[in-house]
Amino acid sequence: MDEKCRKIKESITEYVYNELQGELKSEFEAHLNSCPECRQEAEQQKQILSAYQSMKVDFSEDVWLVQRQNIIKKLEAGKKGILQTIFSNMLVRRLSYAMIVMIFIGISTFAYVRHMLIEKEIVKNLDMYQNMDVIEQLDILEHIADNGDNS
Amino acid sequence: MEREDKDLINDIKQGKKEAIDEIIKKHQKRVYNIAYGLVMDYDKAWDISQEVFVKLVRNIGQFREESSFTTYLYRVVMNAFYDFKRRDKHYDRSILLSETTGENDNVKFEIKDVINIEEDSEKKFLKDDIKKAMTELTDIQRQVFVMKNMEGLAIKEIAEFFHLADGTVKSHLNRAIEKIKAKLKGRTNG
To answer: By CA distance, what is B103's nearest residue in A?
Structure first.
């Protein structure tokens, strides 16, 4: 492969895609006419591209209609289940779980603190009643003692 | 007469259902073939192309007409291709179909059953080899190759779309062709 062939090879893609213009194209074609190796290379590339391009798919109109109906159904299903769509998002789902756990912890903490406060209040009241009992008993004893003294 | 994309988009934005059907009808073959070129599988291309239109319609408000609708459509196709690749490890066609068709709809079919491609065995082998070679290309080589050969975009347009230099696009095309050539092992008349 000489220097000219190497240079030509750089433009071969543009040539096979018909993107070489004017003088460059004429120069390229002139070289292909005189160089069987480059001509073969260009032909081979054209063959590959033609085979690939012929792989384009087309269906009957019935099949395309099925696809359109499927798309419309999916769009309508999406409208009906907007909450479902939101919860199908993994991040949203994780946040929801985290919120449920946080709410549970919050309620438990609140119930525990409330229970502790009530218990404290009861103990305080019991102490007070006990003290009142003692004071009452002292009052009675004092009263008896006073009566004894007077008699 | 086929209506302009921008008129159809305005109608979709205003909630006109017929416009959705019309825009899908107008572009579904093109979208299917790009998807097919990217994944080289009839069924996967079917699912991807459906996803493209679902996303396109759901997010139609995001299309601001700063670029052409076709460019926007290509962008949605490429994103759907990447989404597909991410979940391809756990690909389950039955899930995609049940999402698509709804719970009570049992329309399931293999795409290969509805296409009828008659060709001689030599051509078939050539195409099979091209398919195999395509799966061995890098994502960007495949994307560039598909946009060139399925959509017929100019090298300059592909470069603009992928934000690449013209030379880089040419190089991706060259490498893609070289890889296919290597796979063909003398099947072509070269």
So the answer is: A77
The model carries a pTM of: 0.71
Q: Among A59, A66, A72, select the one facing B115 at the smallest CB separation.
A: A59
Give how many domains chain A has, as a whole number: 3
Residues A14, B155: C-beta atoms closer than 8 Å: yes
Mark whether A16 and A41 lie in a shared domain: yes
Name which of B122, B142, B22, B126 is nearest B81 in CA terms. Answer: B142
Domain that holds residue A81: 60-85
CA-to-CA distance for A78 and A69, rounded, in angstroms?
14
Min Cα separation B68/chain A (Å): 23
DSSP for B122-170, please give it.
Answer: HHHHHHHHHHHHHHTS-HHHHHHHHHHHTS---HHHHHHHHT--HHHHH
Per the CB < 8 A criterion, the answer to whether B50 and B28 are in contact is no
pLDDT tens, position by position, A13-60:
999 999 998 998 999 999 999 999 999 999 999 999 998 999 998 899
Q: What separation, in Å, do the N-terminal and C-terminal C-alpha atoms of chain B show?
A: 45
- What does each C-alpha distance from A43 to A12, A39, B149, B169 come to in angstroms? 10, 6, 16, 21
Residue B129 has pLDDT above 70, yes or no: yes
